[in-house]
Amino acid sequence: MGKITFPKDFIWGAATASYQIEGAVNQDGRGESIWDRFSHTPGKVLNGDTGDVACDHYNRYKEDVQLMKELGLKGYRFSVAWPRIYPQGKGQVNQKGLDFYNSLVDELLKAGIEPIVTLYHWDLPQALQDIGGWDNRDVTDYFADYAFKMYDVLGDRVKKWITHNEPWVVAFVGNAFGEHAPGYKDFALAVRITHHLLLSHAKAVQAYRQSGNDDGGQIGITLNLTPVYPDSDSPEDSEAVQFQDGFQNRWFLDPVFKGAYPEDILEFYQEKYNAPVIRPGDMELIADNHIDFLGINYYTRAVVKKGRESGFDSVEHVHPEGKYTEMGWEVYPEGLYDLLMRIHRDYNAPNIYITENGAAFKDDKVVDGIVDDQDRLEYLKSHFEAAYRAIQDGVNLKGYYVWSFMDNFEWAYGYSKRFGIVYVDYETLKRTPKKSALWYRDVIADNGF
Ligand SMILES: CO[C@H](O)c1c[n+]2c([nH]1)[C@H](O)[C@@H](O)[C@H](O)[C@H]2CO
């Protein structure tokens, strides 16, 4: 592909999340989160790593924003730690927590960087988990109250909001697979939680419309969407694709855009798990609170075939020959094009932002003190090209936030996986742009490559 130039005002950014970078977990009145509890539980996180210090962004944010400015970032996606605002999840507000995010937003605006704020990126206040967490329907109201507080405090300057980051991961990885906080292995619980997450999303959108701070503002949700391909053209493999696409993608896309769960998956869940628990009015609330944009986190595709067991959910993942990242995820930029075109075609999405895309690689080659992450540079370049093709074919893609601005706490993998375009030395906490960051700086300056 020759030189490409993205649309004027395309937002080139980078993304992070509170628990993964902030550290300072006991500073300035922050309450405990489910990730504090989970990471401090032996055996849950590789090497016993925790987010206690992470990148110490809470104390180094001015330095980090300065580095973002030097790289020329147009946008920065970060999340608010709910336990910094409401240490008990509700009730007493922690002013020092509000002060931090107020100051961070001011630093970003001074640097000419537009903030896009995620309200929930997995660090639920432990006090709410102690009363059932997302399985307790009351938590949907506590989330809306927390959201309203953030709109009130930051809404005059923050004009792009994301209610949830990846409700599928929150529900299933944390409550069905047991690999994330709070660590349950109960599929029916996970299905119930998906409904409460979507309900809380709708209530947070409603709160935004009522906040009086939504003038010129936009609110959306970020979904981890994975295009699914069949291993063969057999009817069995097509059925496996139908389930996997429904389980991972349509279960969230349909309610958000069409106000109803996909019939095939709903029927399957009701029969097998007697879930979700939907009250009268719930679907109308979800249907009536439209989003202004969809955030898409894209990393890789899925290739599936019918599994050995019987049943709609009998799916086996296939791993084709090709290049893989350190997470074992196939490098498949075409999947981003196919996904964007599908969302455009099937859901007529309003504005779309890629709210996360990036890769973990070994980062073990250093030239003149700079990590020579050519593999990450090429990963990003090929995905930018796929995004560009989608824009040329009519997709309303308005921005791209690379995951991640800097190396950080990679959940159950701890600090063993590096996604950053900026290298973090965890001994000294020194930040050093990698080759990919210096290349990205030029892409941003030229609005293309
Ligand atoms: C299939 O990947 C998921 O969509 C996904 C990947 N990632 C995510 N979601 C999370 O939003 C980030 O907090 C992770 O650090 C990041 C890298 O693992």
TrEMBL record:
Q: Which organism is it from?
A: Caldicoprobacter faecalis
Task: Spell out where the chain crosses the membrane.
Answer: none
Swiss-Prot/TrEMBL catalytic activity: Hydrolysis of terminal, non-reducing beta-D-glucosyl residues with release of beta-D-glucose
Source domain of life is Bacteria
Any GO CC annotation of this UniProt entry: cytosol
Q: Which SUPFAM superfamilies match?
A: (Trans)glycosidases
| Name the record gives this protein | Beta-glucosidase
Keywords on record = Carbohydrate metabolism, Cellulose degradation, Glycosidase, Hydrolase, Polysaccharide degradation
Where along this sequence does the record place binding of substrate? Q20, H121, N165, Y299, W403, E410, W411
KW Nucleus (keyword) present = no
The record's family statement is:
Belongs to the glycosyl hydrolase 1 family.
Q: Which residues form the active site?
A: E166 (proton donor), E356 (nucleophile)
Annotated GO biological process = cellulose catabolic process
Quote the Pfam families the UniProt record gives.
Glyco_hydro_1
Q: What is its EC number?
A: 3.2.1.21
Q: Which InterPro entries match?
A: GH, GH_1_N_CS, Glyco_hydro_1, Glyco_hydro_1_AS, Glyco_hydro_1_beta-glucosidase
Molecular function via GO: beta-glucosidase activity
